[in-house]
């Protein structure tokens, strides 16, 4: 009788071990398939975002070879920060940045916040005084002596939003 009990316990433990092995091997393969599909999804997402970024950055001095050729005598990577710094230097004026095209509407002056150099000639910038926001398109010139000058092409101020 004792022998049969050991036999039944051995068979039962073998069945439990077999079912446990099958369960965990299936769970592992399921997780691996799930992870592969997630990895594929994320790779596709990264490719999509990269393509959108490349498309959005089409209008930039960094990615425009024709505009880069215009600055053949300059290092474009060093010139871009110089242009931005030259434009942002006008923010220190007590009346505000004169290249926003706006006079003071309240206590605060208009200053330029963000700048995007589109090509060898145009800049688009965002400006505000804390209450009003606007955009300006500028034409810029880099003189032979390295001086950078700006000219307002168009400016737009958004109506004040009441929340």
- Count helical runs: 3
Strand content: 15-25%
> Structural class of the secondary structure composition?
alpha+beta
- Return the average pLDDT rounded to an integer: 86
Across the major sheet, the strand order is: 1-2-3-4
Low-confidence stretches: none
- Kindly state the percentage of residues in helix: 40-55%
The figure for the number of domains is 2
Q: What is the radius of gyration computed over CA atoms, rounded to a whole number of angstroms?
A: 32 Å
Shape: elongated
By DSSP, the count of extended strands is 4
Assembly classification: single chain
Structural key phrases:
elongated, 2 domains, 4 strands, four-stranded antiparallel β-sheet, 21% strand, alpha+beta, 163 residues
Task: Give the topology.
Blueprint: H1 2-56, H2 65-70, H3 76-88, E1 111-117, E2 122-128, E3 133-142, E4 148-157
Antiparallel strand pairs: 1-2, 2-3, 3-4
Structure report:
The chain has 163 residues and is an alpha+beta fold. The protein folds into two domains: 56 residues; 97 residues, no CATH class. 45% of the residues lie in helices and 21% in strands. The protein has three helices and four strands. A four-stranded antiparallel sheet has the order 1-2-3-4, with helices on one face. Strand 2 and strand 3 form a beta hairpin. The model has no long low-confidence stretch (mean pLDDT 86).
